[in-house]
Amino acid sequence: MGIRFTVLSSGSTGNATVVDNGEVKLLVDVGFSAKKMELLMKERELAASSIDGILVTHEHSDHIKGLGAFARKYDVPIYANEKTWVELDRQIGVIAEGNKRVMDTGGLEEFGSLKVESFGISHDAAEPVGYVFYEGEQKLSVVTDLGYMSEKVKEKISDSDALVLETNHDVDMLRVGHYPWSIKRRILGDKGHLSNEAAGEALCDIMTNKTKSVYMAHLSRDHNLMDLARLTVNNIVQERAPESKQLRLMDTYYDRSTKWDVLDSE
């Protein structure tokens, strides 16, 4: 079958993505209660009991809110690096020792024919990561919660068939918003979140003719709009890479899942 995926939900209030190759089904983060996760999966005709593993990007609550409860209920192994596990142990309750799996940053795990590689990103967490999924020639990258797109991150996610990429905020909306300056400074900083503009600029550096779809993820409900994110990213791409006619900019939602996206097997 190759890789298919759905962004179950994404935003400041919670994040979760499912990646499936017909052999294994993996979750990236569990940012909602176990009950909410079950409902989101049901939208995509997916049983929560079918999940084979959970990959954790970092320990912030919008990525692990239901992690402990979900893993215990369905006896699912959790993969995270050691520094993240230190934080998880403080937050998610008791996890069976056999389900506590250490995946070093930069490590590669094989789940049958599906290969998963983690890579470090810049965010104010213990040791945050993004993930790249490989199935044959197919490549899917999932990266949110990064203050800036480093050259190393660009190298890891370039030439992807599809990306789940952070477009967290519009800089002007954030600057005039109601948040205290200390929080605004955090979001705008190198360990904060990626703006629409920064995502668009980075996308021009990493996409190739192979890249077909980009899911704009982790939008702030206070300082962004999906239409604005799409317009900003599209304008930058059209200005810098006008030949990229095949690229689709896809919405994600804070309250529902995206349709399954099946990567091109050619």
TrEMBL record:
Organism name: Paenibacillus oryzisoli
SMART domains: Lactamase_B
Lineage: Bacteria, Bacillati, Bacillota, Bacilli, Bacillales
Gene Ontology molecular functions: hydrolase activity
Catalytic activity from the UniProt record: 3',5'-cyclic UMP + H2O = UMP + H(+); 3',5'-cyclic CMP + H2O = CMP + H(+)
Domain Metallo-beta-lactamase: 13-218
Source organism superkingdom: Bacteria
UniProt keywords, alphabetically: Hydrolase
Primary role: Counteracts the endogenous Pycsar antiviral defense system. Phosphodiesterase that enables metal-dependent hydrolysis of host cyclic nucleotide Pycsar defense signals such as cCMP and cUMP.
Protein name, per record: Metallohydrolase
